[in-house]
Amino acid sequence: MTQAPTPTADTVRRLVRSLLKEGGGDGTGGPDVRPVTEDREHTWWIGGRHVLRLAPDREASVRRRRELRLRDLVRPHVPVAVPTSVAHGDWAPGLAYTLDTRVTGGTADEHDVSAVGEDDLAGLLGGLRAVPARQAEALGVPRTAPRSLEALRRMAVHAAERLAAADEFDAARLHQLTPASAAQLAAQPGTAVLTHHGLTGAHVVVSADGRVRGILDWTAAALGDPAEDIAGLAVAVGSPAAVRAATLAGYGARPCLRGLWLARCDTVIRLTDRLEGRTGGSLPLLRTQLRRAWEPILLERVTDLPEDEPEP
Question: Across the chain, what does the average pLDDT equal?
Fold first, then answer.
C-alpha cells in the first residue's frame, strides 16, 4: 500500500492558492494556513473563513465524497448549519479533499448549551429522523446493526472495577444497569433512522449564548440506532441536555435511556483504555466526558417499559 504524503503548510498553501481569490495573509504569497490542532494534520484553517479537510487514505476519501452529497440531503431537514463545500477534488492521487466554509462559533467542549440550544438539538434529532432512508442509502450511507447493551455493560463493569482501583470512579454506580435492564433497553425492530454517528463536543458548534449553530463532520453517518446520537450528545453536552433534547424530538423513554447507558458504558471503557495505555487522547477531556455522561437525570431508573411502547 502506497504511503500517503504528509500534508505541510506549503502543500496546503499551494492547493488553496488555486482555489481561493485571497491575498497572502502571511506575506508568503498565499493564504494564512494552520492546522486546526497539532494532532490533526489533515484538517487546516484557511484564513478566517474556510477549513480544508484532507482524506488520509482511500477509505476516508470514499466517506469524504459521500459526505458532500449527504450534507445536501440533510441540510433542508435540520435547523442548524451543515458545512458547505466551496471546492473539492483530490489533493494527492486518489485522496480527496473538501474546502468548506467555516461554521462560526466555539465547540460544546468550550460553551454550555442553553435551553434554546437544547431546542436546536431536538430539531437536529427530529430532522435526521425525517430524512428518507432510501435517499440516504442511495448515496451509499451504510446500515449498522444496533450494539448489544448487555455486552457493553459487561465490558464496562470490568473497566469500572479497574477505574475504582485507580480512584477514578465509583464502580457501584454501574450496578444500576442490571442484565435485565440492559435486555429491556435492547434496540427495537424497525426504528433505524439516519444518524450522524459521530457526535462529539468538537463536532457540535455552540455560540457564546449557548445556541447550537452547526454540526460538523458527517463522514461516519449511518442508518441505524437513534440511541447512538443520543449517546453522542450525552457525552458532548451532558446527559440532562441530551435526554431533554431527545424527548423534545419525540423519542420515548426506551431510546433515551438506551442512549444514556450507551454513553455511560462507553465513557467508562474509554477512560480505562486510556489510563492503561491502549489508546491515546486527552485525559482531561475523557474525564470531562465521563462526568457529562454520568450527570443525573430525572428519568434515571429503568422501569417496566411496555413492549408496545410506540417509537417515532
Answer: 91
Number of other CB atoms surrounding residue 90 within 10 Å = 14
φ and ψ of 130, to 5 deg: -85, -15
CA distances from 294 to 206, 260, 300 (A): 22, 8, 10
Report the predicted TM-score, pTM, of the whole model to 2 decimal places: 0.91
Confirm if 160 and 171 have CB atoms less than 8 A apart.
yes
CB atoms within 10 A of CB 212: 28
Over residues 247-283, the pLDDT tens digits come to 999 999 999 999 999 999 999 999 999 999 999 989 9
Helix (H) or strand (E) holding 89: strand 85-92
- Beta-carbon count within 10 A of 289 CB: 24
Q: For residues 11 and 47, give the distance between their C-alpha atoms in angstroms, rounded to a whole number.
A: 15
> What pLDDT was estimated at residue 20?
72
Please classify residue 205 by burial: count the beta carbons closer than 10 Å to its beta carbon, then call 0-12 exposed, 13-18 middle and 19+ buried: buried
Instruction: Classify strands 50-54 and 85-92 as parallel, antiparallel or unpaired.
Output: unpaired
Cα 49 to Cα 59: distance, rounded to the nearest angstrom: 28
CA distance 49 to 130: 30
Q: Per-residue pLDDT tens for 82-138? A: 999 999 999 999 999 999 999 999 999 999 999 999 999 999 999 999 999 999 999
3-state class (DSSP) for residue 99: strand
What is residue 105's DSSP assignment?
S
Question: What DSSP string describes 153-212?
Answer: HHHHHHHHHHHHHTTS--GGGGGGS-HHHHHHTSPPTT--EEE-----GGGEEE-TTS-E
Report which of 277, 239, 254, 285 is spatially closest to residue 118, judged by C-alpha positions: 239
